[in-house]
Design goal:
alpha/beta; five-stranded parallel β-sheet
Length: 308
């Protein structure tokens, strides 16, 4: 071997703080803090995972014994708590640290994996896995893969393929399974192969009323809208009432409520405007736009029951 072909010397020490900055991990975690309100335990676990991966990368660079850590995850929590968004950020984090090649997210449900007749499931599942390789596969409401009461169900075939790929390709694919906590517990109990392959179980808490009001402000600001003080107070009351009703989906329900408020605002402007409207008028959500909701009359807002 010539001198030109010799491997470069391995470092004898690594500055983890510098690795944290130069890898771009800091940017992802700052985005998580900036764009995701609340979720303190989730953010803590993501930071812990990032620290683990930085240390493992440093150990590899120094020639120390290391194994590719198992990064498959379970995200549990109610609808609208940010699971898909955090999965997307996790994909970017893993890409920056070199644990996946592409850093993309492929989000699927049972219908994307399980066929309706013999011989249909394996091609569907393998095609999804092919698209997800080099990134993160997010399986929403994963427990619907398992239907033991239906003898003609082909979900078990998809499960077996997933288990094999999760074990054999764990250095090129991260699988995140998501759903309600109690249903995921039953799913793992019935399919212990998944539990043994998933090292990171992260629970997403419901947002508090104050956090949901902050989310509402954040959503409006992103669309160049704003509340009047009276409208913001009405929104706070709406949140307290709405979260006591069925099918409440945390941030998703807040987004739906704001979409309806914008619809009412637009109709109000058309019916009341006597002349040209300035940017402030076009961008302001008034108290009446919120209080027109049926929630204030004891009714239920017309939103569909949200999925995970």
């Amino acid at each position: 071997m010539s001198a030109d072909d010799a491997e470069p010397p391995r470092p004898t020490a690594i500055d983890l703080a510098e690795e944290y900055r130069s890898s771009g991990v800091a940017e992802v975690l700052e985005e998580l803090d900036r764009d995701m309100i609340g979720l303190a335990p989730v953010k803590k676990r993501i930071r812990e995972t990032a620290a683990l991966l930085l240390v493992e990368r440093a150990r590899k660079a120094m020639g120390l014994s290391h194994d590719t850590p198992t990064l498959h995850m379970s995200f549990t929590g109610n609808p609208g708590t940010g699971k898909t968004t955090v999965a997307l950020m996790m994909a970017g984090l893993l890409k920056r640290l070199g644990y996946v090649r592409k850093g993309h997210l492929v989000s699927v449900t049972r219908d994307d994996l399980v066929g309706q007749y013999i011989g249909h499931t394996a091609p569907k599942t393998k095609e999804v896995l092919k698209k997800a390789m080099g990134g993160v596969l997010f399986i929403d409401e994963a427990y619907y893969l398992y239907k033991p009461d239906n003898e003609r169900d082909y979900g078990q075939e998809a499960i077996e393929i997933l288990l094999q790929v999760m074990e054999n390709n764990r250095d090129d694919l991260v699988v995140i399974m998501a759903g309600y906590a109690d249903r995921m517990d039953k799913f793992f109990a019935a399919n212990p192969g998944f539990r043994s392959r998933i090292a990171h179980h992260i629970e997403f808490p419901d947002y508090t009323s104050e956090e949901m009001l902050r989310i509402a402000r954040h959503m409006l600001d992103a669309q160049s809208y704003l509340f009047t003080p009276a409208a913001e107070k009405a929104m706070a009351e709406y949140i307290d009432l709405r979260r006591q009703q069925p099918h409440f989906a945390n941030a998703r329900s807040i987004r739906n409520a704001l979409d309806r408020a914008r619809l009412r605002q637009a109709n109000r402007l058309f019916s009341e405007a006597k002349g040209p409207l300035d940017a402030t008028a076009l961008s302001t959500i008034d108290e009446s736009d919120i209080r027109a909701s049926r929630v204030f009359k004891g009714g239920l807002d017309s939103e569909r029951s949200a999925a995970q």
